[in-house]
Amino acid sequence: MKRIMLTGVIPALLILLFAYTATNKLAALDDFTASMYNQPIPHRLAYILARAIPIAEILAATCLLFGKTQKLGLYTSFILLALFTGYIGLILLHVFKRIPCNCAGIFRHLTWQQHLCINLLLLALTGLALSPQTKKHSQSPLKQSI
Amino acid sequence: MKKIKWHLLVIALFGICAGYVNKPQKLRTPMGQEMDTYQYWYSADGRMYYGYDLSSMGWVQGRDYDCVYPPNICTFIADPTRSHSDDTGNWFYASDVPQSGINMDGGFELMDE
Fold first, then answer.
1. What is the pLDDT of residue A101?
2. Is the minimum CB–CB distance between A42 and chain B shorter than 8 Å?
3. Distance, in angstroms, between B88 CA and closest chain A CA?
4. What's the pLDDT tens digit per position in B36-68?
5. Hey, is A93 helix, strand or coil?
6. Model pTM?
7. Are the beta carbons of B64 and B76 closer than 8 angstroms?
């Protein structure tokens, strides 16, 4: 049961998340770009990130779809989630001079604190799926015996 | 072709459809036209600029201006060579309108850029 949860449900959850967020951003790219301009980062970087983030999310979701690239997809997801979580952490620690609006993500109506909780949960689940213990469990008995 | 996990593909397609259906919607006038306005723009001296339907004035979105909602946060991409008028009839340039954000207490703070 635990093995199914880790090897099946977590990639599915991440695919759903990234497919949703990437489409949501690309379908209203102008809005997302404008939202990125509201973040405390240089405008040129905001413009680049507004394109790079959905592309990275699509890449992560695509990697998760295939058996052979699923591990790569999990690592990409972990890195993306860690970056998002780190950014939220910096905001909440008042590293930037102001608290930007949280209008750039999918959870527009949540506070930054709620964002952080969700991201930490997803990050922990992805980390769990990548843990060596899970890798050992997900190997087939045949492969182990070889 | 690498072996694809079909159940995950179905989930991905579901996510794509949900993401598209729930894309952010622009505000529209009662006539159905897209409307972009200045909303709650605060300058350094506390003046507020709001209330213009820029689309109907023939300004080009993305070149002359851009706006994002929620309305108390606005991004303004303006042609710096053009002057703009606020609701009181005063003219100002884009450089006169610093960007602002909401702090933890709901108050406005000026951007550092």
1. 59
2. yes
3. 26
4. 433 333 333 444 333 344 455 555 555 555 544
5. coil
6. 0.65
7. no
Give the number of residues written for chain B: 113
Residue B100 β-bridge partners: B110
User: Tokens 């969700």, residue?
Assistant: A118
Q: How confident is the model at residue A72 (pLDDT cuts 50, 70, 90)?
A: very high
Checking B93-99 for CB contacts under 8 A at 24+ apart, the result is B96/B43, B97/B41, B97/B43, B97/B49, B98/B42, B98/B43, B98/B44, B99/A38, B99/B75
Largest pairwise CA distance in chain B: 64
CB B78 within 8 A of CB B63: no
Gap between the Cα atoms of B48 and A129, Å rounded: 50
Give me the helix-helix angle, A43-65 and B6-21, nearest 10°: 150
- pLDDT above 70 for B73: no
* Residues from B in contact with A at Cβ < 8 Å: 2-5, 7-9, 11-16, 18-20, 22-24, 26, 61-62, 66-70, 73, 75, 77, 99-104, 109-113
Closest CA to A49 of A63, A61, A68, A34: A34
Contact assessment for residue B65 and residue B34, using Cβ atoms and an 8 Å cutoff: no
- Tell me which of A106 and A69 has the higher pLDDT: A69
Nearest to A123 by CA among A84, A68, A72, A73: A84
CB pair distance less than 8 Å for A24 and B24: yes
